[in-house]
Amino acid sequence: MTTRSAVLAGALALAALSAGCSAGGAEPPAPSPPPSPTATSDTGRVAEFAGLEVPARATGLEVDERTSDGGLTTLTARFDTDRAGAEAFCAAENLGVYPDPEGPDDADAEAFGIDPADPGTVDGSTTCRGAEPTAGRVQREVLILYPGADEARVHLLAYDSP
């Protein structure tokens, strides 16, 4: 076989291979998409940052997390549950529990970002405070309001200590 014949035979083989692939042959696999970042649920964010477990029967969970220019994080959360769920939330390790038969004052309401349209409380409030027990760098404050006989509205404020 001459060099010219070998080159021609190789070109014909390549053309036949290309034609076979485009005419229904196996196509190269599509590149897989890059893995998406793992989304942490709101309950996971509360547990991870503040070391607190949101009750399974909680509803309406809202979480907001902000980081200051200095790199300190503040996490706020709000959810509704029953009294037992709220009591279990405040029974977490290293939280002191402080009942207040009169309910929160204006300063507490402002600190927890409570909307003035919030139904308030029919049976005082409970405040729970303490540092996250693992590293102790996160301060946790919880305010529980009781808008109904077996209803609890839980407000959480957790923040990095400088």
Q: What does the model show?
A:
- The structure is a single chain.
- The chain is of the alpha+beta class and 162 residues long.
- Helices cover 27% and strands 31% of the residues.
- The protein has helices at 3-22, 42-50, 83-90, 106-111, and strands at residues 59-67, 73-81, 96-100, 125-131, 138-148, 151-160.
- It has a six-stranded antiparallel β-sheet.
- The longest helix is centred in the first third of the chain and has 20 residues, at 3-22.
- The model is unreliable at 1-23 and 32-39 (pLDDT under 50).
Task: Describe the structure concisely for a colleague.
Residues 1-23 form the signal peptide. The protein has 162 residues and is α+β, with helices and mostly antiparallel strands. 27% of the residues lie in helices and 31% in strands.
Number of strands: 6
Give me the Rg, rounded.
Answer: 30 Å
Identify the strand order in the major beta sheet. 1-2-6-5-4-3
Helix/strand/pairing class, anyone? Answer: alpha+beta
Q: Helix count?
A: 4
Give the CA-CA distance, first to last residue. Answer: 82 Å
Assess the beta-strand content as a share of residues. Answer: 25-35%
Low-confidence stretches: 1-23, 32-39
Shape, per Cα inertia axes: globular
Order of helices and strands: HHEEHEHEEE
The biggest beta sheet, please? 6 strands, antiparallel
Helicity, as a percent range? 25-40%
Mean pLDDT: 80
Keywords: Signal
Region (Disordered): 21-44, 114-134
Signal peptide: 1-23
Biased composition (Pro residues): 28-37
Structure keywords:
single chain, about 160 residues, alpha+beta, 4 helices, about 25% helix
